[in-house]
């Protein structure tokens, strides 16, 4: 069983994938613009790093859909405009509150709605509490994991992270997040983003690389 | 000739939209999607602005075009951390290990037209938080003119160099300098002064 990452050639992708901290956590790395037919075959899970050109991802959309159709697990991180190419994904823009943490008494609104989900055996709950880039709206069948409370501006279903097994009535599994940890970790800024990615990779190690 | 071409990397909140709609600044540069670079005749531009979200593997594949632009007297401004050496003068980014706030203080070591009248305190702090301007260095090549360093370790965060092929190269090891245009303090001077500096073919 093995795990691949798709990256976009940005410095933060290079740093996160190649620096000692997470080196060895990905069995294979693919440069998104060169992703080719058959590349994803056989991987138990594929992570799409945050902040890859949405134009490139849309151009490779068919390869991702085919991978899902074959029963693969696709983990799509934030700022990839997944709502324009991944099945079932709906997203609305919300200006990012980069500064919520300056007031220590602020509740940024994050809620762990399914704390027993397998991801939270590896991802510390506090590691998802940082600024976020817009809100996902999980479709029927998806399991919301982190939401923003309605009274904090999350609306009826505003979600930062969800798991959609059997996506599009098929065998594939789609995990979607609005968080962008490759960017922050690879920029040496915001330790909580590094903690989130560390937990997420502990989950992928345990689940897809045994 | 147009002052500059900015390569857009499709970021939702990059600040580029606000710049594009600014009458004063926006009328001085064009914006094109990064991956369209190969279809652009750079001879129509004095400067090329490359930001932190750029796909550097792609830029490496366009090295010959970038060098031809420099050879023709063009100015390249790069903001971000170097991961791929898409120009010979660039070296991979080195973060300041385990930095503290004092390591992040921006210190001016040479005057430069882009930073004229810019208070280094406005670069060091944003809303009282240090580190946005830079947290390390793209090591400058021999002959570079270092403009700002960070902290007691004097890590060079900004430099200008005359590349061997020609032209001018300005390198900032941090977020895009053009995104300070709406900062509301002296840091906002950088963008118009950057365009002014690019527009001057050769400063003394």
Question: Can you tell me about this structure?
Answer:
The complex is a heterodimer of chains A (210) and B (204). Chain A is built from 5 helices and 10 strands; from the N terminus they run βαββααβββββββαα. Chain A is α/β, with parallel strands linked by helices and 210 residues long. Chain A has a single domain, classed as Rossmann fold (3-Layer(aba) Sandwich). The radius of gyration of chain A is 16 Å and the shape is globular. The mean pLDDT of chain A is 96. Chain B contains 6 helices and 12 strands. In chain B, the strands form 3 sheets. Chain B has an 8-stranded mixed β-sheet. Chain B is globular. Chain A binds chain B through residues 8-12, 14-15, 31, 33, 51, 53-56, 79, 81, 93, 95-96, 99, 102, 133-134, 187-189, and chain B through 9-13, 33-35, 52-58, 80-84, 93, 95, 127-129, 131, 135-136.
What order do the helices and strands come in, and which of them pair?
The complex is a heterodimer of chains A (210) and B (204).
Chain A: E1 3-7, H1 11-18, E2 28-31, E3 45-48, H2 54-59, H3 61-69, E4 73-76, E5 91-92, E6 110-112, E7 135-136, E8 143-148, E9 159-165, E10 173-177, H4 181-186, H5 191-208
Chain B: E1 2-8, H1 16-21, H2 23-26, E2 29-33, E3 45-50, H3 56-61, H4 63-71, E4 75-79, E5 94-95, E6 106-108, H5 120-124, E7 125-126, E8 129-130, E9 136-137, E10 145-150, E11 155-161, E12 168-172, H6 190-199
Parallel strand pairs in B: 1-2, 1-3, 3-4, 4-12
Antiparallel strand pairs in B: 5-9, 6-10, 7-8, 10-11, 11-12
